[in-house]
Amino acid sequence: MEQTVQLGALIGLAAAVFVGASTQRISGMGFALVASPFLVMVLGPFEGIMLVNFLGACSSLLIFAQVFRQVEYKKIALLLVPAVIMTFPGAWVAKLLGGPWLSIGISIMVILALGASFLVRNLPAGQSKGLAIGAGAISGFMSVTAGVSGPAIAGYAVASRWPQAKFAISVQLYFLVLAVSSLLAKGGMPQLDWIQWITCLAAMVLGIVLGNVLAPKIPAKVSRAFVVLVALAGAVGLLVNGITALA
Fold it and tell me: Domain limits at 179?
């Protein structure tokens, strides 16, 4: 019975990483939003989020290595500087505040950010450096506290009308650096046995391979809509988890 449970958990772990990696390659983001709920359930909140950060970094590195010539480095730098800075106070807040209230606060920020992105997309503010800095800061804070850095960046991409194809390529460098910064801020690495490591890494590579095949075949509008829906679903899920934990 115990072996069956362990096998089921291993298969679920592989499925979550596989789908997350495919989503990351196709839409530019989504690994954490797709994979983190199951990884946290299996490994716990601390180890689970650390694994999300680590595998997210690996996934982004593998994709970045394929597309680095097409990355918009100036745009990414503007987002990265405030994001990396905010990982350190974010790590402190995560230890101080605790889970439920932090989850609720973050989810509300994400929902408001996504809603606001549609309101400012036709305004000059949508192209401003201030919006980019703010989005990067919120994303960095969320990366280390909840393992989810994509929604704020997705909101910025919509507001600034960043072309989906260029966004999906460029944002890999952003996620790579931010995931590494989050791990450094927490001061550790996830602790898994060798079977779990092999399963996760193999599922990640296979997911990226599938994403490479599907990405050119999916229209930009569909991919962008999917990014927003995934971000919104992640925020709502985080809100429900926070409220449930308090109740």
Answer: 2-246
Average pLDDT over residues 169-189: 86
What pLDDT does residue 116 have? Answer: 65
Please identify which residue in the block is written with the tokens 């096998």: 7
8 A C-beta contact, residue 155 and residue 138: no
- Model-level pTM? 0.75
Beta-carbon-side half-sphere exposure of residue 45 (alpha carbons within 13 Å): 14
Helix 73-97 × helix 99-120 angle, to 10°: 150
Q: Which two tokens stand for residue 116?
A: 């606001």
What mean pLDDT is predicted for residues 119-123?
57
**Maximum C-alpha span of the chain:** 60
The residue among 9, 73, 58 whose CA lies nearest residue 190 is 58
| 182-186, Cβ contacts within 8 angstroms, sequence gap of 24 or more | 182/53, 182/87, 182/91, 182/143, 182/144, 182/147, 183/50, 183/53, 183/54, 183/57, 184/87, 185/87, 185/88, 185/90, 185/91, 185/144, 186/50, 186/53, 186/91, 186/144
Residue appearing with tokens 């089921």: 8
Provide the number of structural domains found in the chain.
1
What integer pLDDT is reported at residue 177 of this predicted model?
92
